[in-house]
């Protein structure tokens, strides 16, 4: 989650660019609502410990992960 105003968090997908140690650099993959300083395509750096969910895709198809997506669609 990306910390937003008022103690809220905004959850966004980040497309991986590089992963070195526990540091991940990537690009915001969706359009933020609460974080006005970010936009789709913004470069961000996060720690491995900040990851809540992940997904691996190949040829545009989900291979593994995106567990929160599956839960939300089932609800």
Structural features, described:
- The protein has 75 residues and is mainly beta.
- The protein has one helix at residues 67-74; strands spanning 2-3, 9-10, 14-20, 23-28, 43-47, 55-58, 61-65.
- A three-stranded antiparallel β-sheet has the order 3-4-5, with no helix packed on it. A two-stranded antiparallel ribbon has the order 1-2. Strands 6-7 form a two-stranded antiparallel ribbon.
Question: The biggest beta sheet, please?
Answer: 3 strands, antiparallel
Strand content: 35-45%
Low-confidence stretches: none
**Helix content class:** 10-25%
- N- and C-termini, Cα separation: 21 Å
| C-alpha geometry | globular
Mean pLDDT: 85
User: Quick one: how many beta strands?
Assistant: 7
Strands across the major sheet, in which order? 3-4-5
Give helix and strand order, one letter per element, not per position: EEEEEEEH
What is the C-alpha radius of gyration, as a whole number of Å? 13 Å
Number of helices: 1
Helix/strand/pairing category = mainly beta
């Amino acid at each position: 989650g990306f910390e937003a105003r008022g103690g809220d968090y905004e959850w966004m997908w980040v497309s991986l660019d590089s992963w070195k140690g526990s540091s991940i650099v990537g690009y915001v993959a969706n359009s933020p609502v609460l974080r006005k300083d970010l936009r789709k395509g913004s470069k961000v750096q996060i720690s491995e410990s900040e990851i809540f969910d992940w997904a691996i895709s190949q040829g545009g198809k989900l291979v593994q992960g995106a567990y929160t997506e599956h839960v939300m669609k089932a609800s």
